[in-house]
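Notebook p. 47: complex prediction with DQA.
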Amino acid sequence: MNVRVLNGPNLGRLGRRKPARYGTVTFAELARSCEALAAELDLSVRVLRTDAEHEMLRWVHEAADEGAAVVLNPAAWTHTSVALREACAMLTAPLVEVHITNVHARESFRTHSYISPVATATIAGCGVSGYLLALRWLAARERS
Ligand code: DQA
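Predicted complex, structure tokens below:
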């Protein structure tokens, strides 16, 4: 199974960005953990990050064309982007929305997600382990 792990704005700064909230794991470490687990689970994974919305839209379009599953942390675009939601709505394989923090326990503007209504599943508040849980769930779902 092909899986894209896509990350939105500011997630490249993981490890340095508010470590008390987002943790000390860097984006490079997170990417390596996803790649290592994917190899164990026999998933083909690509971990990508961008601060540019048009690039994210292109990756989601490619995933739609290839029938790839997506693990997506849309970051701030969660709360702002109708365009990203409409791209995600074109996916045919499962989409797992991941948030490192529990967005429902934070500022009120974070409680609304444009993405959740078009996601297959949502994981929030498990730290960077949420990405690994998403990969495990995708692999288990494919086997069942
Ligand atoms: C986030 C939560 C968003 O509200 C925020 O804008 C982020 C990260 C998370 O992973 O907890 O950049 O998606």
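Notes: DSSP finds five helices and five strands in the chain. The first strand starts at residue 2 and ends at 7.
Next step: compare against the earlier run before touching the bench.
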